[in-house]
Structure formats: structure tokens, C-alpha cells
Amino acid sequence: MYRIALKMLMGDTGKYVGIIMGLTFASLIMTQQPAIFIGLMARTYSFISDVGQPDIWVMDDKVQFIDDIKPLQDTELYSVRGIAGVDWAVPLYKGLLKARLADGTFQTCNLVGLDDTTLIGGPPYMLNGQLKDLRRSDSIIVDVDGATTKLAKPALHGGASTPLQLDDVLELNDHRAIVVGIARTTRTFQSQPVIYTTYSRAKSFAPRERKSLSFVLVKARPGQNLHELTQRIHAGTGLAAYTSEEFQTLTYQYFIKNTGIPINFGMSVLLGFIVGAAIAGQTFYNFTLENIRQFGVLKAMGTSNLTLLRMILLQALMVGTIGYGMGVGLTALFGYSMRNSVLAFKFPWQLLVFSGAGVSLICMFAALISIIKVLRLEPAIVFKG
Length: 385
Prior knowledge:
Strand order of the largest sheet: 2-3-8-5-7-6
Number of helices: 12
Number of strands: 10
Oligomer: single chain
Order of helices and strands: HHHEHEEEEHEEEHEHEHHHHH
Mean pLDDT: 86
Largest sheet: 6 strands, mixed, barrel
Radius of gyration: 30 Å
Number of domains: 2
Strand content: 15-25%
Distance between the termini: 26 Å
């Protein structure tokens, strides 16, 4: 019976391919769009992920996300260092600064100032140069994406721009800065170039302000409970203290609650589900109608409703598996082809479960409307006409 069910399914090539294409489209949309959404949300806290050494981030208690900088007095650093359970604490500067390019245009960059002594908080991967080169006079490290695109040296006669190289010079807020390293960092939400330098030099590059300390990076002593330490820091200094994971959560929750990004992607996924269900359901139902006499013959021969039910479910499982596999495969191919572009894309295994559940619901819907028709079928229809 199961072989007959598959022969019936594949006998009409047009409808068979149509059902698979509908499920493939639904699987593609329900996988690709969430993958882009997850990748985009991961970029909101990518800077926190890149700074891997500290356990705790200390900041003004009004900060809502990583780029919501509310500077502190430098003296707050010593207050944090005095809290029991703190192994070390270093300053970090983070702010926006305009770089003047060779053709006179300006480019907004993320300026990161690292502790002068330890250079904690530096880029995760160095492609050219070394992190310790930041101790040289007027030195900066530029991320590779910024060095090859927005900060690249413009061509003189309309040709291709030239990426920044070691010992090239940038002008930051009327200050001379020499490139001593090229680093690879995770792209940020706004995809702006990232420039690293020392904390003291960052303060000289940036416009004069009474407060300049963006964050205090804290390492807990071995065996210290991080949750207890964050509470102790808050009680002792009045500042907000979050573990790296808590700060990441705070950041992406801000973007989810205060932007329309989740709604936009959610509508795309819902549309893919509805269109896939409509195409697969309608085509599967038409396929059942065209084979209604065959089902009638099987009923007249004594085939039970349970067996017919299993046959239809097998057909739905067949097309669902193929459509799901093709949709996920196209999504993976799309993500691989976009790996070096500015497009955000992240494909965790949980997304496979999500899209698989969506395709399963579509197949259940398509099979249900066909099952109802078959169960109500009278075997006498075979002898009519």
C-alpha cells in the first residue's frame, strides 16, 4: 500500500514538483530570514564578545546598551579596584570620532581606548602588526573591514581605492595617527570602522570632556561568584555591573524592544509560512481530488480508513522531507556565498528545529484537508459515471 501511495504521488509530475517547490519556498523563508535576524542581533553585542578577558563590565547605571555611553569620572576606576573579590580592573574608552581621509572627506569611526599598561580589551585577531605596537607614539590599530573599505585611500584618477597598510597616516580630530596594525574584528551593528589605541591617547584624540571613562573592565578573583561580585560593586560604588553575558542580553533586548526589526523579520517569516501552506495545501488537495477514484477502489477492496490515513501521511512526509531539505540547503548555500559580505547571517542548530517545525505544520495542514475528503469518501463513487 505504501508503494502504491508513492506511485500515486509521483505519477503526476507537475503537482508533485509543485508541492515540493511550495514547501521549499516556505522552508527557505523560515530559515533564511531568521538567520539574518539572528546575525543582525548578534552584531549589536559583537564588541562585548570580542573583549573576552573581563568577567564584569561596570558602567553608569543609566546605560541601556553597549553604544549608549554615559562617561564616568576616572576616579571611579579606583573605587572599583577597592571592592573585595576584584582581581584587576582596567579602564576602557569607547566613542565615535571622525577620521579625515586623504581626499578631504570624513568617516565616522568607533574609537576604542585600551589600558596603557595591559592593553586589555584589544582586538581578538591581529592580521598585521602586534598589539604591543600601540605603545609607539601616535599609533593606532584599524579593523580590516574598515581598512579595506571606508578608510581605504581613495584613488587619484577614479580607479580602485587602496586599503590602509602599516605606517599609513590618518587624521583623527586634527591629530596625526599612524597605523601600526590591522586586526580582524566582528562587524558591529552599524558596520563602522573600529580604531584601537591606548586609553590616554584616545582621550587626546577625542573632544575635551570633563568625564571620559566609558567602562571599567573587571576580572574576578578565582572562585569568586560573579553575581555576588556584581551586587557588591553596585552597592559599593552605585554603578551598574553586569557579567559579559548579562551585558549582551541587555544590549540585544534593547534593540528588540525599541526597534521594528523583530516585527519586520517576523512578518517575512509569517508570510513565508502562509504562502507555503497555501501552495502546498491547495496542490495536495487537488492531487487528492484527481486520485479520488483510486482511493475509492482501495476502499471498495476493503482497505481501512487507518491504512488510507497512513498512505496520505506518508505522501505528506515524503514531500515535506524533500522540501525541507532543499530549503535548508539553499539557505546554507546562501549563507556561505555571503560570508565575506556585509550581510549579517548566523545559522545555529536551533533554527533547523524551528523551520522543521514550521514545515511539519504545513504538511499536517495539507494532509488534513486531504484526509477529511478521503475519510468521507463512499466506495460507490467508483461505479458512478
